Structure to design on (299 residues):
């Protein structure tokens, strides 16, 4: 039995006449009659009562008609769903982000805009370090990821620049360097002698190395007292008074109690990039739509 046999049967049942059904299907009447008889023979039952002016469904035919219509409708639904997926209008994509990237307004806004524009695409979100996210991209567990650290020559991974923001110094509330005019900027050299709390290097080598290099340009090597597993954790440790840290400016919006911020002098040259990483040339249609949306919104 093939789908065409079901279509032939439904047409004859709906028309109540083999000749009219043949005209509707665009085939000759004798072959259609032959196919209906073959279908009845395969099912080992009679689907139609033959009458002088047409045909009428038997009780078995009535039951078979309902099932045949459901099958054909399901097939059409499957074909339409496949076409939507091929066009990138439906399906599922995985999006990753580092902890600090998720706090920049661009990231949630881009994800929200995509959900509104493509409601039939299910999103799976994953937080992790840059190295973790890159491995998930390679393993095809993610389709795109917002990262801070440069990835370098990662095989098969493309990186699109999105934006960059300045880094700010975070102090325990009441720290002498956090006081003074809010608009006044702090030279990075002023942090010499402070105990630094940094995000662990294996998870975010780009920002870690940039901070070390900037301090060295300012004339000293930072004294590192603690390394935290997430950038948000560095702020929690700062709040306890264990040291100071440098974070992307967008993280000030978290409002962590017990932490005060100070903008750095431009001579520090410290910026936090936000990039979108994805597999080179292997993204599905839905993922390509998300990448295109991010590229459009960054402009």
């Amino acid at each position: 039995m093939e789908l065409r046999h079901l279509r032939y049967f439904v047409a004859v049942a709906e028309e109540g006449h083999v000749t009219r059904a043949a005209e509707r299907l665009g085939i000759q009447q004798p072959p259609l009659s032959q196919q209906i008889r073959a279908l009845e023979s395969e099912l080992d039952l009679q689907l139609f009562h033959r009458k002088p002016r047409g045909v009428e469904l038997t009780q078995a035919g009535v039951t078979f008609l309902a099932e045949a219509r459901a099958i054909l409708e399901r097939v059409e639904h499957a074909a339409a769903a496949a076409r939507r997926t091929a066009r990138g209008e439906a399906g599922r994509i995985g999006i990753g982000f580092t902890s600090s990237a998720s706090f920049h307004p661009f990231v949630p806004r881009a994800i929200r805009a995509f959900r509104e524009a493509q409601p039939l695409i299910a999103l799976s979100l994953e937080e992790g370090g840059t190295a973790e996210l890159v491995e998930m991209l390679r393993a095809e567990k993610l389709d795109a990821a917002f990262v801070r650290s440069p990835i370098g020559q990662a095989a098969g991974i493309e990186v699109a620049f999105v934006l960059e923001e300045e880094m700010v110094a975070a102090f325990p509330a009441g720290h002498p360097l956090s006081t003074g005019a809010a608009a006044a900027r702090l030279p990075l050299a002023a942090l010499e002698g402070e105990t630094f709390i940094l995000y662990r290097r294996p998870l975010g080598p780009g920002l870690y190395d940039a901070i070390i290099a900037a301090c060295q340009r300012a004339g000293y090597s930072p004294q590192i007292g603690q390394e935290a597993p997430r950038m948000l954790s560095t702020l929690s440790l700062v709040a306890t008074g264990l040291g100071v840290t440098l974070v992307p400016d967008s993280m000030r919006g978290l409002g962590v109690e017990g932490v005060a911020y100070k903008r750095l002098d431009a001579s520090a040259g410290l910026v936090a990039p936000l990039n979108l990483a994805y597999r080179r040339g292997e993204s599905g249609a839905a993922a390509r739509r998300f990448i295109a949306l991010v590229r459009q919104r960054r402009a």
About this structure: The chain has nine helices and eleven strands. The mean pLDDT is 89.
